[in-house]
Task: structure prediction
Amino acid sequence: MSTETRDTVFIGKKPLMAYVTSALIQLANLPSVNIKARGMSIGRAVDVAQIVARKTENAGYAVGEIKIGSEALESQDGKTRNVSTIEIEIKRN
Amino acid sequence: MSTETRDTVFIGKKPLMAYVTSALIQLANLPSVNIKARGMSIGRAVDVAQIVARKTENAGYAVGEIKIGSEALESQDGKTRNVSTIEIEIKRN
Result:
């Protein structure tokens, strides 16, 4: 999967603006971008989406569909834990 | 605003299941409930929504509309900071 064609930004531990920049680059090339995160990074995904939406609103972009879900992950003690996920779309209105 | 009529659960620092219980009580009396949080609590709001939706899916409830936003807050050093917000609806399909 090349950087040029993927339409998803996964939120991790980098500084917030790194993900904002990735999302803006993708919106320069594609009609929409999905910002995804899970667990502790979910709040940061909302931050990134809000910043990107604010920076691109004059160009007609806005927050689109928002989905939440959960994934079963095996933790280090061998137990299965559910972790919440979020997916926020930014798209041209 | 009495406990009986409000349809919103604000997520704070209590144990997760306290908010799950509040939401379930409200769904026993009202057709929908809104789970709200801001900043660091946003991930926990998604956790609560997922647990409530899973516990009530057999009764026909599911995650409804999800909204994100931001609020300007004045921090202790007098600067204005933006904090992200989320609002997740759980409703009968």
Observations:
- Strands of chain A lie at 8-10, 32-38, 61-74, 80-92.
- The CA atoms of residues 35 and 49 of chain A lie 7 Å apart.
